[in-house]
Specification:
It contains five helices and no strands. With about 140 residues, it is mainly alpha-helical. Helix 1 runs antiparallel to helix 2, helix 2 packs antiparallel against helix 3 and helix 3 packs antiparallel against helix 4.
Length: about 140
């Protein structure tokens, strides 16, 4: 599989989401100097990073629809990792709906879970030697094993 424009868009969005996600999560935690010595969140930073992260996740999920791999076990080019597309889109809907309804704890749980599962866990799977990014990262280095 070669680096196509679709893969470049997907890769750019996912790597950016991995970097922006912690900013959104950290900004909500806040900093000292809050009322009565408590935490005062960086609301504007959280909101900006959150919007950016959601946009990047949408780009990543939607671009993944156009990336197909016929070498791995698949159905019409869609491999098991493609099951993350509806999971990601559904999780974003649930998390944003919770926010709209003022269910902040639920929103936080869904967004944190989505970051861990879609960015960190799925990202780790893409580094497997048989995957495109795994081949790019590891190259022939694993060939000597």
């Amino acid at each position: 599989m070669d680096m196509t424009p679709t893969i470049a868009i997907h890769l750019s969005a996912t790597l950016s989401a991995v970097l922006v996600g912690p900013v959104a999560l950290w900004a909500r935690r806040g900093h000292a100097d809050g009322p009565k010595g408590g935490q005062r969140p960086h609301v504007r930073l959280h909101r900006a990073a959150g919007y950016a992260w959601v946009t990047l996740m949408l780009i990543a999920a939607l671009s993944a629809l156009f990336i197909r791999d016929f070498r791995l076990p698949n159905i019409a080019g869609y491999t098991p990792i493609h099951l993350l597309i509806p999971l990601t889109l559904g999780s974003l809907v649930v998390a944003l709906r919770a926010l709209h309804l003022g269910q902040i704890r639920r929103h936080r749980r869904w967004m944190t879970s989505l970051y861990v599962s879609a960015c960190l866990v799925a990202g780790a799977f893409t580094l497997l030697p048989g995957r495109y990014l795994g081949q790019r990262v590891w190259g022939d280095w694993l060939g000597w094993l």
